[in-house]
């Protein structure tokens, strides 16, 4: 979850998740997705064990749609007990088919922890790693990106992004040079404020990019007005950050049951409900909820596979959520 310097607010889901996850295996969904996925989705599945997969428009490369953010959650000390939680979560994420891990030099130790832990687990070269540059000036930008690669333990990176449009013209030139040299496979932009959407749209329409990372969730759909359409037209993959709106979505539904129609379709928790709303959009390929709690990861994984809401059900989700 990309929040600049904001502090993430968390909701304890443990009691409800333990009950829901125990019953998941006994619920027969019997439904198949009907939403037209177009060219952006590699395949549809209601398998309980296979994560939804999307195609990266610029290359056609397939990538599991559920990623893992590292903001706050991976900013831990190497000798702390929390590092064990990171190892457990990253191992389970990869074992379930997850590949996309997003970080940033402004996330404290997150890059170094991601690099060290993934190396220890033997999955380092198999992850789709993404990070950002967030500084002004060409030399400073090149230096920051080099430091990120070193912390991640990589000579090459799947995705480098310009965060919050900081000196974006200068940094975009550097990213393109890095891509031409084979250092970065993909390049993109990120932002955590909807007020930046008009400028982002202008840049997307004028520049050749591979990825766009923005806030998008059941509670924040501003991007649907213009930005998602622009990204689709330009063949740019979209990563939804803040999929739970900094915990605001959980606060809004506290003490409320997931709608019965959703539970009948195997959507047992609010986290699954929120993620499946995102994944049922034909214009948003990926989402990167951040956590180092294994129980939360398992819940998120269920949101990244199985039944996918139809277009009509997406509309119902919005209406019912905003009526709460």
Describe this structure as you would to a colleague.
By secondary structure, the chain is α/β, with parallel strands linked by helices. The chain contains twelve helices and eleven strands. The strands form two sheets. An eight-stranded parallel sheet has the order 4-5-6-7-8-9-10-11. It has a three-stranded antiparallel sheet with strand order 1-2-3, with no helix packed on it. α1 (14-24) packs across α11, α2 crosses α3 and α10 (270-279) packs across α11 (294-303). The longest helix has 15 residues, at 138-152. Mean pLDDT is 89; it is low at 1-12 and 18-46.
Produce the secondary structure layout.
Layout: H1 14-24, E1 41-43, E2 53-56, E3 61-64, E4 68-69, H2 82-95, E5 100-102, H3 110-121, E6 128-133, H4 138-152, E7 157-163, H5 168-180, E8 184-190, H6 197-206, E9 211-215, H7 227-233, E10 237-241, H8 248-252, H9 260-264, H10 270-279, E11 286-287, H11 294-303, H12 311-322
Parallel strand pairs: 4-5, 5-6, 6-7, 7-8, 8-9, 9-10, 10-11
Antiparallel strand pairs: 1-2, 2-3
Helix pairs in contact: 1-11, 2-3, 2-11, 3-4, 10-11
Distance between the ends: 25 Å
Name the helix and strand elements from N-terminus to C-terminus, one letter apiece: HEEEEHEHEHEHEHEHEHHHEHH
Number of helix segments?
12
From the spread of the alpha carbons, the general shape counts as globular
**What quaternary form is this?**
single chain
Overall average residue pLDDT: 89
Radius of gyration: 19 Å
Q: What is the number of E strands? A: 11
Biggest sheet record:
8 strands, parallel
Largest sheet strand order = 4-5-6-7-8-9-10-11
The chain-level structural class is alpha/beta
Relative helix content: 25-40%
- Proportion of β residues? 5-15%
């Amino acid at each position: 979850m990309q929040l600049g310097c904001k502090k993430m607010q968390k909701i304890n889901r443990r009691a409800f998740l333990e009950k829901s996850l125990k019953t998941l295996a006994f619920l027969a969904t019997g439904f198949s997705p009907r939403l037209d996925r177009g060219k952006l989705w590699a395949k549809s599945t209601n398998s309980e064990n296979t994560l939804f997969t999307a195609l990266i428009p610029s290359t056609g490369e397939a990538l599991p749609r559920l990623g893992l953010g590292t903001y706050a959650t991976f900013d831990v000390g190497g000798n702390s007990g929390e590092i064990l939680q990171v190892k457990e979560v990253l191992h389970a994420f990869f074992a379930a088919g997850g590949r996309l891990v997003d970080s940033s030099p402004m996330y404290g130790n997150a890059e170094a922890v991601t690099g060290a832990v993934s190396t220890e687990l033997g999955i380092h070269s198999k992850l789709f790693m993404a990070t950002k540059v967030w500084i002004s000036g060409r030399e400073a930008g090149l230096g920051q990106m080099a430091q990120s690669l070193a912390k991640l333990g990589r000579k090459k990176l799947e995705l480098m992004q310009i965060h919050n449009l900081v000196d974006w013209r200068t940094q975009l030139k550097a990213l393109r040079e890095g891509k031409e040299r084979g250092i970065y496979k993909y390049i993109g932009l990120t932002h955590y404020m909807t007020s930046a959407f008009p400028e982002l749209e202008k840049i997307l329409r004028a520049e050749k990019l591979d990825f766009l990372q923005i806030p998008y969730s059941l509670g924040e759909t501003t991007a649907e007005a213009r930005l998602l359409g622009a990204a689709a037209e330009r063949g740019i993959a979209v990563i939804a950050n803040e999929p739970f709106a900094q915990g605001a979505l959980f606060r809004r539904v506290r003490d409320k049951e997931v709608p019965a129609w959703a539970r009948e379709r195997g959507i047992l928790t609010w986290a699954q409900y929120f993620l499946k709303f995102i994944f049922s959009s034909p214009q948003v390929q990926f989402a990167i909820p951040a956590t180092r709690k294994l129980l939360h990861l398992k819940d998120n994984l269920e949101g990244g596979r199985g039944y996918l809401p139809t277009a009509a059900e997406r509309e119902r989700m919005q209406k019912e959520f905003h009526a709460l």
